[in-house]
Structures are given as structure tokens and as C-alpha cells.
Design goal:
Layout lengths: L9 E5 L4 H11 L3 E7 L1 H4 L11 E2 L2 E2 L1 E2 L2 E2 L4 H6 L4 E5 L4 H12 L3 E4 L5 H4 L4 H7 L4 E6 L14 H7 L21 H24 L3 E6 H7 L2 H10 L16 E5 L5 E5 L3 H10 L14 H6 L1 H12 L4 H10 L4 E3 L3 H4 L3 H5 L3 E4 L7 E4 L22 H14 L4
Parallel strand pairs: 1-2, 1-8, 2-7, 8-9, 9-10
Antiparallel strand pairs: 3-4, 5-6, 11-12, 12-13, 14-15
Length: 405
């Protein structure tokens, strides 16, 4: 494996579901040694984390009464680039071992409700006393304070609480949940990773560790800054527009002759003139309803009614070719089956094949960053507890290397 920018950084990863594991997955991709902790079989009990439609992938259940399996879809997708151990943090012996590990770590990451880490013996005060330089990052749904502090946080719930669903849906329909249920989870995980990187940089300058608090509530709010600003300024709720843009027109997806959709985005007056030339309807340039972008947004429905039969007159490839020639952003709405073989996707490693002990093949999204001198890495998810012996055996050497008593 190559040494990434975080080579030498050790992370104690006490995370579950997606929001926390997504953060540590990215730290691992950047070179950190992430030690991911799952409960032992005795501590786990019944684990209802199910990460596939209907709870199965083919005929293989994602969770059983013995707990999450190391081949669960979510576990594989969110726990790459790590080593895996198991601990029973209700056992005094395992808590003591966790404390010895924490003395050698640079980062402690967890996503649990307030108070749970304290009850497990790994609260901030305890960990700080063990390791004053540690970066302690806790991710919660609603924060450490306020009337909802004890409320469990989940991606769909946060989308509803923050109004994320308020502007999602088709005209005349009810607000809808976002179909990619990990939007808030992954965004929160990204903010956590960014905060940890900033805290590591600050520690290099000051020599001090610190505590980081990240909430899904804040992440869901931050994503909607523009929509919030518009609403608080105007008092007008967002329109439900399906694929169409709130702020520009024409900007959306249209059905074509081959029963596929093409997405086109016109964001300047120069592009509007070129757009009218491509569709061979220059008379639209003289139509006062469409004179400016503001006019086109106001008369979006009338414009779309004109454009719909035009797009349906020919196939997707024609529009991609013609709009591409004049530099207007355009693409067909890709099917997922295409992405595994898409030249641009593969050239940028945005879909990667990884080994898996439980699948013949496992395909995942790849790293979104490429560093020329300290390249990222991407390796398979560990089986639950796969590295128990390895991590335990190396602990004396790591403590000695780090000067830990």
C-alpha cells in the first residue's frame, strides 16, 4: 500500500451504520490506520441493521439474530480501507484493552447518542485523560444540548426535520423523500472528516488535542443554505419541480424519441441563443416571455410545453452530440448498468472493483480525490474481528514507537 497524506495517523473507529463509517472510510483512503470496532458476538445480541431492499441481497440475509454480517451491503460499502476488531465494551477487560489502544491513537471517532460513550467507558473526559493529544470526534443526530438531544438520528428522519423534503417532488404532488437515503449521512461524515483534518493540522501547530461535535441536523441545514435564504427573504416555499431547476431555465430532463431522458442545463444568455439554434427554433429568441433567464423561469411551464415535443422528435445521442458541439452542458440520464463500463467513470476510478471474502465480485464508488505525491488507497472491507490478533499482537511495539507507557 502507498503512504497517503495521513500515513502514521491511527484512528479508533467506534462507529455504526453509515454516517460514522463514511468518515473513517475516507480517513483510511488517505492513509490513516483505521481500527474499526464492532461488538463481539456476545455483546452484539440482536442487530437490526439491514442495508438492502427487503433485508436481502439475492437469497442472503443482511442481518440475523446473531447480528450484522460482514458481507452486508452497507457494511462492505462503508467500511473499506480499515482493519476490523471486536470488543465488548461492557466487559472491564475489553474496556481496559480499549484504553490501551486509545493511548496509541490520534483520533477517536464515534456516532452514538449523548451519554452512551460515557457509559461504555470511552467518554471524552476519560479518553482525554488517557491521551491529552487525541482528536475526539462525536457525531450525533441532534447535538449534545436541546430538547431532542436523546432522540436517535437517522438519515430519512433528519431530511424531514430539516425540511429537506419540503422542496423535493414533482409539481402537484406531495413532498418526497430523497431516493439516495445516504445523502445526510454521507454529508455529515464528510464534515466530520474535514473537521478531523483541521484538528490534526491545529494540533501540529499547537500540540493540543480537542473535541469535535458534529450533528446531522447541522449538516442537513448547511446543505440547504440557498433554499433557506430564499424562503426567509421571500416567505415563499420552494416549488416542487421534479427535475427542473429552481433558478435557471431551460434546465431539466426531457423525454426523447428512444424513451430515454436527456438532461440539458442552460445557464447564460449565450447558451440560450445556442440552445435555440440547436433545436432550430430561433423564433424563441424574439418571444418576450423568454427574453431573459428571469422571464424563462417565470414562464417555465409554457417553455417546457414547447420543448417537450421538440426533444421527443429524435434520440438522445443526437441531442448529446449537438449540444456538446456548442458547449451546453448535456447528458443522457445514465442507467446504473452503464457505469461499470463507462470509459470516463473507469478512467477516473469512480467505480472500483474490490476483493470481498463473501462475494465473487464487489463494486463500489471510488475515492473522489487524487493526490499526485501521496496517493489515496482503496482496499476491501475487513471481516468482523478479522484483525483481532494482529492489532493485539502489535500493540506493545506501537506503544514503544509512540512513547506510550
Amino acid at each position: 500500500m502507498t503512504d497517503g497524506p495521513l500515513a502514521g495517523v491511527r484512528v479508533f473507529d467506534l462507529t455504526v451504520a453509515e454516517v460514522g463509517p463514511w468518515c473513517s472510510l475516507n480517513l483510511g483512503a488517505l492513509g490513516a490506520d483505521v481500527i474499526h470496532v464492532e461488538p463481539t458476538p456476545e455483546a452484539r445480541g440482536s442487530d437490526a441493521r439491514v442495508f438492502a431492499r427487503g433485508g436481502v441481497l439475492g437469497d442472503r440475509p443482511m442481518a440475523t439474530d446473531k447480528g450484522i454480517q460482514s458481507w452486508a451491503v452497507g457494511y462492505i460499502a462503508w467500511n473499506m480501507n480499515k482493519r476490523g476488531i471486536t470488543l465488548d465494551l461492557k466487559s472491564a477487560e475489553d474496556v481496559a484493552y480499549a484504553h490501551e489502544l486509545l493511548k496509541t491513537c490520534d483520533v477517536f471517532l464515534m456516532n452514538m447518542r449523548p451519554g452512551v460513550a460515557d457509559r461504555l467507558g470511552v467518554g471524552y473526559d476519560t479518553v482525554k485523560e488517557l491521551n491529552p493529544q487525541i482528536i475526539y470526534c462525536s457525531v450525533t443526530g441532534f447535538g449534545e444540548d436541546g430538547p431532542m438531544r436523546e432522540t436517535p438520528g437517522a438519515d430519512p428522519q433528519i431530511r424531514y426535520v430539516t425540511g429537506f423534503a419540503e422542496g423535493t417532488g414533482t409539481p402537484g404532488d406531495m413532498p418526497q423523500g430523497y431516493r439516495f437515503s445516504g445523502q445526510i449521512d454521507a454529508t455529515t461524515g464528510n464534515y466530520a472528516a474535514q473537521s478531523i483534518l483541521m484538528a490534526l493540522l491545529a494540533r501540529k501547530r499547537t500540540g493540543k488535542g480537542q473535541r469535535i461535535e458534529i450533528t446531522m441536523l447541522n449538516a442537513g441545514t448547511a446543505l440547504q443554505s440557498i433554499r433557506y435564504g430564499e424562503y426567509f427573504a421571500s416567505g415563499k416555499r420552494p416549488e416542487l419541480l421534479g427535475s427542473y431547476s429552481q433558478s435557471t431555465a431551460p434546465d431539466g430532463a426531457w423525454l426523447c424519441q428512444d424513451n430515454r431522458y436527456v438532461g440539458v442545463s442552460v445557464t447564460s444568455e449565450d447558451q440560450w441563443r445556442d440552445f435555440c439554434g440547436v433545436i432550430k427554433h430561433l423564433e424563441l429568441l424574439e418571444d418576450t416571455r423568454f427574453a431573459t433567464n428571469s422571464d424563462r423561469v417565470e414562464h417555465r411551464d409554457e417553455l417546457n410545453a414547447i420543448l417537450a415535443p421538440i426533444f421527443q422528435s429524435t434520440v438522445v445521442e443526437y441531442w448529446e452530440l449537438k449540444f456538446g458541439q456548442v458547449g451546453i452542458p448535456c447528458s443522457h440520464v445514465a442507467r446504473w448498468s452503464e457505469l461499470r463500463h463507462h470509459d470516463q467513470v473507469l478512467a477516473n476510478e469512480m467505480v472500483k472493483h474490490v476483493e470481498s471474502p463473501h462475494f465473487v465480485e464487489a463494486w463500489t464508488g471510488g475515492p473522489p480525490y487524487h493526490l499526485s505525491e501521496t496517493p489515496q488507497r482503496w482496499f476491501r472491507t475487513p471481516g468482523i474481528g478479522e484483525h483481532n490478533d494482529e492489532v493485539r499482537a502489535e500493540l506493545p511495539r506501537v506503544k514503544q514507537d509512540r512513547g506510550v507507557e
